[in-house]
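Researcher: Please translate sequence to structure tokens.
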Amino acid sequence: MKNIKSKMRLFAMLSMVLLIGFASCSEDILQEKPRSVFTPDFFTTEIGVQGGITFLYENMRYLYGHAYYYSALETGTDEYTFAQSADNNFITPDLSGQGAPIQSDTYVTGIAWNTAFPAINTANGIIENAEAVGVNESLVAEARFFRAFNYFILVQQYGGVPLDLGSGELAFNNSAVRTSVRNTVPEVYTKAIFPDLITAVENLPVNPRLTGTVTQNVARLKLAKAYLTYAWWLENPNNIPTYPETSRTDPDGNDASYYFQEAYNLAVEGIENPGPYSLQEFYYDVHLGSNDRNSEWMLYADRTEESQLYNGADLGWSGTDGSANTAVWMVTPNYTTMSVDGVAAVQREASQSYGRPWTRMAPTVEVLTETFDNKDMDSRYDGTFVSSYRGNWDKGGVQEPTLTAANGMEIAPGDAVISFLDEYNPNVNYVNGANIGGGELPGRSDYVINPNEINRRFYPGLWKLGTYRTDNQGGLGQPNGALTRPFPIAKYSEFYFVAAEAAVKGASGSYSAYDLINVIRARAGKWRFDNGEQEDRNEDFSDELVAETPMDLDIYYILAERSREYFGEQIRWYDLVRTQTWAELAGTYTIGGNDATDHDPETFTRTIEDFHYLRPIPINQLDDLDMSEAEKDAYQNPGY
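Model: Translation complete:
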């Protein structure tokens, strides 16, 4: 099957103003010479419609893998806090009182607004002109999917948003409009998100037309997730305010239980009619770089190693701007300062356990001690984190065959230099081993750190999203280039989670929440490779993990399972906000200080107010409005 492997920068648009520009695109999508400017009537041509579709896929890169958008959805949750080298792009969203408050000029909380509306307006243009152009309805369904996809992002983050971009509701706008009216949350769901996704489910193909394009089941999963989220919004268990103010009633007269049931029904339908999708047999393989775009990945923001142009970011030395996939750099500690026997034992390498270390975000102690408490049987900790940093000095040209490490013992290239222990061991003697705060245990040549004694300077990196290249040629490769891996957005496994969450909320059918979650947990018990030990491990703890599952599941158990399954995948903020558990589950956290030798964690308290459940409308949007200050204040979400 062909691939979408394209820089695909077809259009550059402002939120409410269309400015269409074209750079390049893959021959897999269309044959077209690069142009600099297009007029709006470009959408009245078949090549224009195809080009617009290409842009909708490419635009996902500006959210998924974007370093600072990643922070907006992970920092401040129960998964991540800010790390030693963080600036206000990470300290501010942590809400722990150590940075500036979130306001309308906070960069990270405005990214979604400024990225989604150009895609929505492009989709409007495609849908509006498609019939006259004569393109296949399944292609138009892709545009409908992405219009709903982007509105779903916006409504979750900002509440009600405008459906009229200047030329009428859901109409293509090609003029500068400096006024705006926000629709209510129910209007966004029932006028835009639900109708578009229902149509997409009906008209999209079962199998993707190109590798990575959306299908019937991708739309079905997104619709199930939208129903689930809307059901929670209607129920509003903790009385979180919404904006613009409106009653928590559905225009069609349905209640929360109706939408929980609809979410369940759709998710089960997706499970029973998988199409080309399936669960991987082992969790390890879900995120193994050489297995990217596997059968479990339903939607992803793609990149490529084959071409810097099509990758959309430099392959040798990249910044974090634009469409560069650099999110994982933010959660990678600076392991390169390790020194053993006077040698830089662990050097920057373009491989999945290493990559470029920016030390901007760190997991909390509770992640290692509570979320991932069963590290021996549940393979998801091992398939998520870098739990041992191994010597690669030989790839950097250092000739020494061995180095003297912990307890005066020798290590060779490939041996662990420092490891994070699975469980607390009171016998660890911290000696600042490897110049990165390591401790010693008798009989071990690697330095070690207890899981409850990590700090903002050194902690387990995120293996699952780590760098993967095939052009290292036995050396360190190009670790400073933007990642060429796709960034996952939707997985087949989430059908099970959506159905289980809906079942916990009262939905019923052929599978209980217990049944659904145990499909996921049984898979988690299967091992074929031990990532931390870097060795084969053929063991199966499925029965044990299933036996540990409570018969009566609650939302807290579902959320814990979601974190184990999707840790660090840029969705945790949505999970906590949807279920209104953000303040409860992420209100406090524990971690050590900014020094690698700090193994005395402190407890930090976050101030998560009700108004934080909505993001501020970005200042650039307000500045562009030709409205009075009172009208702008009314346009802004309360609290900002």
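Researcher: Any highlights?
Model: The longest strand covers residues 535-540.
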